[in-house]
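Please, structure for the following, as tokens.
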Amino acid sequence: MKKLFVIFILSVLLGNIFAQDFHLSQFEASPMHLNPAMTGAFEGDHRLSLHYRNQWRSLATKPFVSSALSYDAPIKKVKGLKLGGFILNNRAGQGNYNAMNMVISGSYDYSLKSRPHHHFLPGVQFGFIHKSVNIDKLSFGSQYTPQNGGGLNPDIPSDEIFTNQSLFLFDLNIGGLYYFSSDMSRLNPFIGGSIFHVTQPKESFYGSNNRLPRRFLAHGGAKYNLSQKIQISGYVLAMQQTNDRELNASLFGYYYFKNSDTYIMYGNTWRSKDAILFHLGLKYREFVYRFTYDINTSALSTITNGRGGLEMSIVYILKNFNPEPVQGCPRL
């Protein structure tokens, strides 16, 4: 009964769309979802990413499922310009609440000629959000009656007035990023920030003047090369949307195999008052495979027994090599 009550509360919240934005645990592996300025911020010619997340299976009869497909690339004909886009789909709860983001993303990489390793990138995203919910599958407080022993009677009217069950929103996101890229340096730091839902589009299944609140995000970190084989990196991510605040701190270690473009990685993320995350990864040739599991540490852990969410990703990065490169001057 306790589980059913929690499921009911979550379904009502999702039906009223007052919850915080969906987001992924592998935030550093899905950079365009983190900051528009990180579009095309990778070494290569093309990047294709696929994400899948399944959470609250221990709590809900229908778990919350997130999936994302993204592509980005530098535009060689326009130096510094990087373009991409992604589709992020989220489905949650008994009411089949669904939110799909379809976004075009772009950034411009600017560096001073006198300091080419210092990079400054503004970024922008625009697109649409489609939200829908199946009202017939939701239950409300007025349908739980003493005459029915406190249980649900779906034949009782909910007394809720919905004007629609589907809506489209125009969305605009902006961001900025700085990073230091010298291969000769052991330490490569970066820092950035972004604002999502800049225009605060109107959204409501009730026809009210409810607006999607802005989400503010700040992130930073650094990569440190201990040796040619071992690298560590740390990340800090802070987000705020209305009264919802979240802080993430991550530490990852990478081991590179000799004479190959292959590494294995392990890491942990601490998410404030919510979860501890365990990360495993493998890079082999053009592919990076990631696996993450969240151990729930919030107040819901008494119901979930610590079981949180499973997340997987595959990232494909293609580098085009010139088979007959022009010989440059030898290094002195």
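The chain has one domain: 2-318. Helices lie at 2-16, 31-34, 301-304.
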